[in-house]
Write a structure and sequence with these properties.
The protein has 196 residues and is of the alpha+beta class. 26% of the residues lie in helices and 29% in strands. It has a 5-stranded antiparallel sheet with strand order 2-3-4-7-8, sandwiched between helices. It has a two-stranded parallel ribbon with strand order 1-9. The protein has a two-stranded antiparallel sheet with strand order 5-6. A hairpin with a 2-residue loop joins strand 5 and strand 6. The protein starts with a strand and ends in an 8-residue tail after the last strand.
């Protein structure tokens, strides 16, 4: 089932999310719905707060990046077929020299900006079977994971912009929260005026 994506301005996007137990009710259905929602919105990642749940769950499918022309063979091999579920994740380490990459977010439609992040991460997480992993990721995969991880920490990519950029975007972000955004996927706007 495709779920509505929560728009910028909803308090759930600012919550530091809670771990879930192995026996979390209907977890398989939730994950299935999250993947369907992400694909329906042409996303490469989706975190539980983006569908209104303040829990430490996010998923990533980097395969759409395989269509990018500027990828070298190693990066291409890395993103092809990369699809993972991250539960109760903790980033243990971020390394390397920060680099800029143009990011967007399904909860903040029509806003894309360069964000600086470190290229290498080590993350500990459980998969959908609640098997624990500690893995290192690099490049575009690390970046997508960092973006989604930020969501479960209550952080949005716009928080990482300069104060000047934030001032420039303020009106657009306010409009998004009021429902003044055109998207081709279901959204829930926190401050949209109700029609009578």
């Amino acid at each position: 089932m495709i779920l509505p994506i929560v728009a910028y301005g909803d308090p759930v996007l600012r919550k530091e999310c809670k771990d879930i137990p192995k026996a979390y009710p209907n977890l398989d259905t939730l994950l299935e719905n999250m993947y369907e929602t992400m694909y329906g919105a042409s996303g490469v990642g989706l975190a539980a707060p983006q569908i209104g749940l303040p829990i430490r769950v996010f998923l990533v499918d980097a395969s759409p990046f395989a269509d990018e022309d500027q990828m070298d063979a190693q990066e291409l091999a890395q993103v092809q077929g990369f699809k993972k579920t991250f539960i109760n994740a903790t980033i243990l380490e971020e390394q390397g020299e920060e680099f800029a990459f143009n990011e967007g977010c399904l909860s903040i439609p029509d806003v894309r900006e360069d964000v600086y992040r470190k290229p290498d991460i080590t993350i500990e997480y459980y998969d959908e079977s609640f098997t624990k992993h500690t893995q290192k990721y690099t490049g575009i995969i690390a970046r997508i994971i960092q973006h989604e991880y930020d969501h479960i920490e209550g952080i949005l990519f716009t928080d990482k912009l300069s104060s000047l950029k934030k001032r420039i975007l303020k009106g657009r972000l306010t409009n998004i929260s009021k429902g003044k955004a055109t998207v081709d996927y279901r959204m829930r706007f926190p401050n949209a005026k109700k029609k009578r």
